[in-house]
Amino acid sequence: MDILEEYEIKAEGELKQFPLLPLRDIVIYPGMVVPLFIGRSTSTAALEAAMSSGRFIFLAAQRNSRTEDPLPEDIYSAGILCQVIQLLRLPNGNVKVLVEGKSRGEIHEFEYNGDYYTVRVSMYAEPAEDPSAEITALMAEACTQFTTYHAETKNSISQDALANIAKITSPDLLVDTIAAQLNPKLEDKQNLLATFSQKERLETLISVIICETEVHQLDQKIKERVKKKMEKNHKEYYLNEQLKIIQSELGKKDDHADEYNELEARIKGRKLPLEAAGKALAELKKLKMMSPLSAEAAVIRNYLDTIVDLPWGVFSRTSRDINFAARVMDEDHYGLDKVKIRILEHLAVQTLVKSPKGPILCLVGPPGVGKTSLARSIARATSRKFVKMSLGGVRDEAEIRGHRRTYIGAMPGKILMNLKKVAVSNPLFLLDEIDKLSSDFRGDPASALLEVLDPEQNSRFCDHFLDMDYDLSKVMFLATANSTHSIPRPLLDRMEIIRLEGYTDTEKMEIARHYLVPKQLKESGLSAKLLRFSDDAIVKLINGS
Fold it and tell me: Residue 158's domain spans which residues?
């Protein structure tokens, strides 16, 4: 007997009441036999009610599977009337039930009786007339697309079952049968259940099949690429192991093994921070598993060499003698008394607090007044190594922070490269021509310098290549500029400006007598006895005549 006849439900108008069982992440179609595990008390009560009244229960999917106690607005209105075939109570209190989908329907009213929901539904009745030519064409297209899907996915359906599907003459039965074999998103499943127009159902089904086929093809391509890469790596590893055995049998040494052992000894021999040591050993472990000739192995070796060569925790002994600093600057520079006094005050404060923290000195003046040479004198006065980075024309942020290792030819930024060159973590670092910084689509290097010059941040400076924190707090930074107008305001706020004006003719005469002439004589291998400059000659040189 047909389920509609058994319950005397008419396709139009009359509603029938059934217990409601909300479903999570599953949609059932007519003809499907599905096992369900029931644990919620409301669902168990609804099943008990169904068992005592004809074994019929209405199933509808929840909009959100995580909702524990769904309300009417949490449940889709379209669902399916099912018959309970078998019910088994489990020892843990849950229930295992086997249900068979009978007919699609739509919920019109909800009623809660204290234990479970009942719903009043209208059942869908398939049209009695034969399908139109358009519907027949859509059915044929759905069968064709499903055959393609089956060939691509090689699902468990047999060839006989596939042939039987092609013989189905009912549009709704065809959609229900094919939809049961697919695994699309819950929204697509629900849409197929809720659509009552045969034309729209078939069009939706065809779209879902095509989408599922394309997703499967893309998934297979991804899996194939991953498989090939894994096979290649496995092959390289296997051949490398074979090569090691052959070399061992021939009594030959494995040069790469020696190189890796030496690299490991260097890593463990340096006083690296825990983060750096852990990362270096992890990368070394990956390197040992790779082919020494692979491009990635070369990148990792370069990365490990950079970590080991950086001066982690290496500091030179610095001088805090202010009198010595004053003598050095007087020896190297004539005049500039106000400038020297301000520099000595700055050094005195650093001596008292025993830290290079504080505002960054920026020497501002026209070209040729001795800004760079004064910076060298400060380095000599404090017994620090001197390193200079010219910023004129720098447009790329990577010049400061470095490139990430994913880039071909990646390397650290010039901050760390210069520290690697001087091999100490507390040099005097001169940022020359800081007013000539530019910016473009590759980033703003001035913004990157903010982290470098900020005492609160530079103890955790993160270079993109290194990808871990490096302590710059012991570096004494100094900057030079011709003008302050083009320096970005946030950068200018982190610096103390010391202006160097041009020299008078008298000062130029003294500089020439006591500094430039002796220097040039020495560089030319001459002595004062062999060559002397008269005052008139020096004046003419100063005036350019």
Answer: 127-252
